[in-house]
Amino acid sequence: MHTHEPENERQEVDASKGYEQSDARVSGVVIFLIALSIFALVTAGVSYELGKWMDARMSKEDGPKNRWAQPVDVRPLGNMASSAEMEKTVGASMQSFPTPRAQTDDGNQDVADLHAREDLLLDNYSWADQEQGKVRIPIERAMELMAQRGLPVAVAVEQTPLMTGDERPVVAMPLTNGFARTGYELDQASAIGSKRR
């Protein structure tokens, strides 16, 4: 019987030096650090040259520097004092800006104003086209007229026979009319209602 010795023979470990001698080679670590340093230097050089090229191209497109294109140190000016007069001026100038404008609150008032304008159109009579005599009527009156007169009936279309496995679609009625007040508007309405009481 012939026995094979294992390929990785165990060697006697010399513990007299106090550290592992066979796993880590200093030359491999040094070569890696040198390669990493060279890579970092090359990357920094390429980035610097690319930045110079981009700056030169932007300067060429922007033209020569003038007094309007100079950086200004605003720190000596300090903080601006709050002024009610200035706030009024800024508020008035913002109203003249074309839309869309920056919102001065979190948007709740804008939505409430939009719904108020919609309510004016939906709840009152107004001219749609005065020259042609077209009038908008309140939504409640329009619904009454539709209930009295009914909706126009479309001409019946011949239905093709269903294919195997198909079913006729069933249309469910919507659960809401699709319009809901925001929480902000509901809070305002309840506050007004409590004031009236």
Please, could you describe this protein's structure?
The protein is mainly alpha-helical and 197 residues long. Among the domains are: 27-63; 107-152, no CATH class. Helix content is 46%, strand content 4%. The protein has helices at residues 26-62, 84-96, 108-123, 139-149, 183-196; strands spanning 126-129, 134-136. It has a two-stranded antiparallel sheet with strand order 1-2. The longest helix has 37 residues, at 26-62. It is extended. The chain starts with 25 loop residues before the first helix and ends with a helix.
Question: What labels would you give this structure?
Answer:
mainly alpha; extended; 2 strands; two-stranded antiparallel sheet; 197 residues; 5 helices
A few lines on this structure:
With 197 residues, the protein is mainly alpha-helical. The chain has five helices and two strands.
**DSSP strand (E) fraction?**
under 5%
- What is the number of strand segments? 2
Distance linking N and C termini: 110 Å
Computed Rg: 40 Å
C-alpha geometry: extended
Q: What is the residue-mean pLDDT, rounded to a whole number?
A: 79
Biggest sheet details: 2 strands, antiparallel
Element order: H for helix, E for strand: HHHEEHH
